[in-house]
Design brief:
This protein is of the alpha/beta class. A hairpin with a 5-residue loop joins β3 and β4. α2 packs antiparallel against α3 and α2 crosses α7.
């Protein structure tokens, strides 16, 4: 791990980019045998079957998307059609990858505690057209989940504060795999929100701008710069992947082996944590006295970063962001190239 010490956050000691290693712990003989069978004996042929079916579903999804584009003149019908297609096919892809059940819960800023199921307790509000969904980003699977659950308009932060580029689900998925540099400019997020509202959909953004390994929250981009809190509704959602043998999180490396080994697993686990509505909507145009402004994130970004910390129960790094991730990818790729060359 020392070879990656340059990318250890000094404030928290977190390595946020290094691919996670299996959490072995103490295992008995049966558990060890099961792990070997899953990864090397029964898992590979099962993964081959799963991924073959997945490729068929991807082709079907692409064809049905073309049909959906023909419905563009009829907004209501197109929106209902898109949500149905996304839910059925993208959720099916997640099922094939072992996500049979996705656990969700409401959490609160107060120590990240779970909310009870009592009707008297505040709950999350449903996501409406024109709302912003802000989540942490650790895997290409995030795109599949959000696409299946909300069929949103995906956007990517740019280097210009308050501006984004609009993505298709295909390009959002590709960005989560490649982690390319952020675009220089785009459209104002406030204008994109208005467009999404007129189209009957929400806006999904990963404010970190790139993926982490799920051990901490990265430094936020200035994607929320210029937004007026009283004119937009934000939903803060934390995504967390539990694992023992193989981590669904993906920060760097080859996508194909990663998704293959992911498909080798019997079960994969995703936990979705929704911050309750009252605490998310209490955003301010100026920072509360108990918060310190991070100039790299802006006023609203600093507040949402704090809320993401509570939703995910993770600490935020102070020195790791998109720039450092690009440097890490370059170093990691070059190191892997030299390793292969020496073999």
């Amino acid at each position: 791990m020392e070879k990656y010490s340059r990318w250890r956050d000094p404030g928290t000691g977190i390595h946020a980019f290094v691919p996670p290693v299996p959490l072995r712990g103490d295992r008995n003989g049966f558990q060890t045998f099961t792990s070997i069978a899953k990864s090397y004996i029964l898992g590979p042929p099962l993964a081959f079957i799963k991924l073959t079916v997945a490729m068929i579903l991807v082709v079907v999804f692409a064809l049905l998307e073309l049909v959906g584009q023909m419905l563009a003149p009829i907004t209501l019908i197109q929106r209902a059609y898109t949500r149905l297609v996304n839910f059925v096919l993208l959720r099916s892809l997640l099922l094939l990858l072992g996500f049979y059940w996705i656990k969700s819960e409401n959490v609160t800023v107060k120590k990240g505690a779970r909310r009870s199921s009592s009707r008297t307790q505040p709950t999350r509000q449903s996501v409406q057209a024109g709302d912003i969904i802000a989540t942490n980003h650790t895997s290409y699977l995030d795109v599949l989940y959000l696409g299946a659950r909300y069929a949103p308009m995906f956007v990517t932060p740019t280097q210009t504060p308050g501006q984004v580029t609009v993505e298709t689900i295909w390009s959002a998925f590709a960005r989560s795999i490649r982690s390319p540099p952020l675009p220089e400019t785009g459209l104002r997020l406030s204008d994109v929100v208005k467009t999404a509202k007129s189209n009957g959909c929400s806006v999904a953004v990963f404010p970190e701008g790139t993926t982490s390994n799920g051990r901490g929250i990265l430094r936020m981009t200035k994607v929320f710069h210029g937004l007026e809190p009283d004119k937009v509704r934000v939903h803060v959602i934390g995504l967390k992947y539990e694992y023992e043998d193989f981590a669904p999180t993906f920060t760097v490396g080859n996508f194909i082996p990663h998704v293959f080994f992911l498909a080798c697993q019997w079960i994969n686990t995703l936990e979705v944590r929704y911050l309750i509505s009252e605490e998310v909507q209490d955003l301010h145009t100026t920072l509360p006295a108990n918060m310190t402004l991070n100039p790299d994130e802006g006023v609203m970004g600093t507040q949402i970063a704090s809320l993401l910390n509570h939703a995910t129960r993770l600490r935020q790094t102070s020195s790791l962001g998109v720039k450092e991730k690009l440097e890490f990818i370059a170093y990691y790729t070059e190191r892997e190239r030299k390793t292969r060359k020496s073999l």
